[in-house]
Specification:
alpha+beta; 168 residues; 35% helix
Length: 168
């Protein structure tokens, strides 16, 4: 089942990247200096978005996202075998706003990211990383990023939750 879900997830990601707006140049950026500069900027956005969500700072959280109909947010939780997919900014925004209103107390922050894998394009990036969430355990996050007005924003989020390690 794991291999099937990973295959489906990979196919979704490839399809998402292939269905981009014609203005997006998909030629990879190869300059090492530019890659490191952009990687650092993306890392800051990811950490700030996570911090805003866990601190329940809704205005700050939404400032890190693209507000368009094509935005997606998908969770696959192997620990409890659940999955959710939210399509479009309106639905993502409504879900998170309601969640924060219903759970206003800040949650324990995961360790902030210090390393990410990035494939950088002219005004887009594919980002992947592992993170340990104190409540959910180990998770792999993949983000589709877009650069808008010289600022990186999240256009897609796919999270695979592996769960907490069992104590022996």
């Amino acid at each position: 089942m794991y291999k099937t879900l990973v295959s489906i997830f990979t196919l979704m990601l490839v399809l998402t990247l292939s269905c981009t707006d014609s203005q997006i140049n998909i030629d990879p950026i190869s300059s090492k200096d530019n890659l490191e500069k952009e990687k650092k900027a993306i890392l800051a956005v990811l950490n700030n978005e996570t911090k805003s969500a866990f601190e329940r700072n809704y205005p700050a959280w939404k400032s890190h996202w693209i507000h368009e109909d094509y935005v997606t947010k998908t969770y696959m939780n192997f620990a409890d075998t659940t999955m959710s997919e939210t399509l479009g900014w309106a639905a993502i925004n409504d879900f998170v706003k309601t969640y924060i209103e219903e759970h206003p107390e800040p949650a324990e922050l995961p360790k902030m990211l210090d390393g990410i894998d990035v494939k950088l394009y002219t005004n887009g990036a594919w980002v992947s990383y592992l993170q340990n969430d104190p409540e959910r355990g180990l998770k792999r996050e993949t983000r589709l990023m877009e650069k808008v007005n010289e600022k990186w924003k999240i256009a897609g989020m796919q999270t695979i939750i592996y769960g907490l390690e069992k104590k022996k």
